[in-house]
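Attaching the record inline, Q. Sequence:
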Amino acid sequence: MVTVNPINRRTCLALLGASLAPAAVRWPQRFTDRLTSWLETHRRPEGGYGWASDLVSQVTPSFGAVGCYQLLGKRPPAASRVASFVRNNYPVPERRRTERPLWRLDFEQIQTLLWLDEPIDDFRPLAATWTRPAEFTNRYEMGGNPVFQHQSMAVQVRHLLNLSPSADDGAWHEYFSARRREDGTFNTTPASDGSGGHLMNTLWGLLAFNCLGLSLPVAPGLAEWVRRCQLPSGGFTYAPGATLGALDDLAYTWCALLILEHERLAPAQPTRCAAWIESLQTPDGGFQDRPGGESNPLASYYALDCLRMLNHAPQESAAPAPRARRSAIPNDASVFSMQIQAPGNGSPREAVLMARTLGIHLWAAKNSPSGWIAEAQRIADAERAPVRFAVGDEEYGTFVEVPGQGCYSHLADLVAPFGVDSGGPMPRKDHPYPWPEFRETRIGALRRGGGRMVWQFLESEELTRVLLDEATETATYSAIASFHFGNENFLHSQPFLHRWYGRIPFVGLQDAHGSESWWWGDQLAGFTTLFVAKEPTWQGWLEALDNNLVMAVRHDAITGWKTHLAGGTPALREFVARREKQWRWWDDSGQPSRRPAAALTLLRPGMPFEAGAPKQGAALRLRLWQDNTGQALPREPRAELVELRVDGVRVEPVLHEAKDDRYLLHAFADAPGSHQAEARVRVIGSGKISPVAISWQGPSSPR
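Structure, as predicted:
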């Protein structure tokens, strides 16, 4: 966020037009020592700072940590290493700087470097191309409204680089002016829709106006509007009289105090506000966002800057707020694996094979055709494979609207037990369903049927806060997606999600694409959701969710064959780590060890969902291990056929190849008696020969 920077006067208050420097707070030495010691526990090997639940450095917690040092009047230890990390490690793929850009991350990167007295001119060529708001697909937001926060951050970066105000800012003028309400507030959608403002978006709008050199129309009631956001606790929520997810929060409080500071006003209850902020400091020294969470560097930065604006030195006398609930792990519990939105198409036999070899206990199949889950479970039961198949759908075309915040898709991702009525998708596609209707209709039916909603992604921090804060009170969403197919990690592209660490479990989301589970192998053998329960049943999964005994693990080419974690309390992580050899899918060198090199399947006429099934006779289908894309397309081969023998006789299968599939097929007469086939497959990287064999009984001889 925009901040007070004693080293560089291009600061939040300067942008808002304040003429006086803020009063200096004399931080108690004990307070400073505790906080800085805690910050250093977030230092990571890469040189920056990370979240407590993450093993690697990221820009956002580095921004928070360096901001804390700045407000304390100190320089971070090894500041040059921090600066090097922040400059050279943008947290998402580079294409995101032009495709739905996440300009908040650019702002944090540049502001952190300024705090560290580092040059920023090398960012000028990129920021010079940001001459208008980003295009935003209406597949994600029905009106095509880009995320307001990111647009504000773009012009703030341009201002820091002396690119704005300029004659090139016309499109920015139009965009921000259209979103200013008559009362002086701002929000994501244009003011012409009659909706009200949001506290965070109001700050972003005010900052953008100042960065663009625009005069603010008179809004005499704005300061009072902000004051009325203060709750009895002393903290602030996002709008006066709000009811949907309207909780007090440090980020809201920070935004409110910045606006009031510009107006040279204090909150209605400054003493209560300061006491509430102090109560959020945890025994480890950091601050949580609000009661019931875990401390983190960004919340700690908000807390320090709020105390600065209140000119309040911590007294350490406030009663501490509650921490996140940590459930005890049952003595007889074990670690189990679940894949959410795993493939639900193609060969159910290969799905069972993948589940058995990779140790997947619950397989929530995504958008499977009628009969697929039942067939997969029938095969699993016949082969005594310890996997239960369930529903893991993404209900495409469902849009949910919150006035002023936008109308978004990707809010209807669910898991549910198979064979139970958990309701159906909302009937109208591409229709703006009001959030209360979606909540009562779709989520209500899902929960009554034993299902749960999973938060996939929403790039708007402001709307995410509203809906997930409600979820902490009403369990509308029971889990938050972290690892995702491809190289996406939502906890990195949307770092504000760490706010719910300890409140809502983090899971992995396969979000499978394509027509065959075999060509989703890189993802199935790359990341998973682990849960701790007595049994790998649906009930065991629900109890783990309710008690936050859930975490996600990724270990694949995306992570450089290193293990990354998401979620999980320290006790849960320790419990899971002690049992790593029971569930991990890699060997001691870090390379995959459970991934099957090939799938050999006997095909007969009428077999449902099986590509290559003959109209008469029988056939053997052999699929070989190959890398795959995020659209389940086969890529580079990782295994090759040495030979295929049927009843001891070598045969030459025929290659069948299409854009989305590749397999070898050997057709033959389905003769009576007992038969066996064996394929000898060579793993290309190691040269290891991996035999794959099946046996079957031919049709009975006619009498």
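The domain at 598-697 is CATH 2.60.40 (Immunoglobulin-like). The mean pLDDT is 94.

More tomorrow.
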